[in-house]
Amino acid sequence: MTDISTQLQSMREQYDQEPLRRSSLHMCPFSQFATWLNDAVSLKVYDPNACSLSTVDDQNGPVARAVLLKGIENGRFIFYTNQNSRKAKHLTSNPKACIHFPWFSLQRQVLVTGEVSKVEDSQAEEYFRSRPLLSQLGAWASSQSEELDSRETLEKSFLEAKEKYGEHPPKPPHWGGYYLLPNSIEFWQGGPNRLHDRFLYENLQGDWCIRRLNP
Ligand SMILES: Cc1cc2nc3c(=O)[nH]c(=O)nc-3n(C[C@H](O)[C@H](O)[C@H](O)COP(=O)(O)O)c2cc1C
């Protein structure tokens, strides 16, 4: 066995934080999510609003990458991106998606599955304007997911955007947000002896039903 495999086989953490019990669950998964997100913030999880977004291509090939959760409104999770990107192409051909919050330092994870739709342009504009200027310019500079010949080309493109738009870049037409409307939200809390706590909230015709799952 290689050294790295030996190391990997011996890597093992004990899960020893407070358990998650049915009696302490909120009936509403968004309240439960807000409680856990607040814990992640107050316990200083790095990038607490970062999640992995999984999509599938038109051959059903899955791809995951990180995005930042930027809002929860009317029962929908919101993230922003380039709408010409690979993920956007996937979501156009198949709007089903999953986001995964990896709050490993709290021995927790949350999985949200559902379907996406586009955020209205006016709302995307409002959020775009709230971003730091250099991030706004970055959105113009990058043709996200397309091949890039060099770092210099990207930096040149950034400087060109800066020159062209100055202090007030408009929102690029290809930049916007997605709402993920969940049909399920699962909360996982690590437990001793791999006897973890898992609760699955499923939306059944408008009502959230909660089931405990085997770990
Ligand atoms: C912590 C973290 C947060 C990120 N947040 C975003 C985001 O909010 N929006 C985005 O488009 N890309 C974000 N990215 C970059 C994406 O993970 C990804 O590389 C990019 O969106 C291109 O993905 P695609 O080619 O699959 O479309 C983030 C990366 C990391 C590591």
Plain-language structure description:
The protein is of the alpha+beta class and 215 residues long. The chain contains six helices and eight strands; from the N terminus they run ααβββαββαααβββ. It has a single domain, classed as Pnp Oxidase, Chain A. It has a six-stranded antiparallel beta barrel with strand order 1-2-3-6-5-4. The longest helix is centred in the C-terminal third of the chain and has 15 residues. Bound molecules: flavin mononucleotide (FMN).
Summarize the structure.
This protein has 215 residues and is α+β, with helices and mostly antiparallel strands.
Structural features:
215 residues; alpha+beta; Pnp Oxidase, Chain A; 6 helices; 30% helix; binds flavin mononucleotide
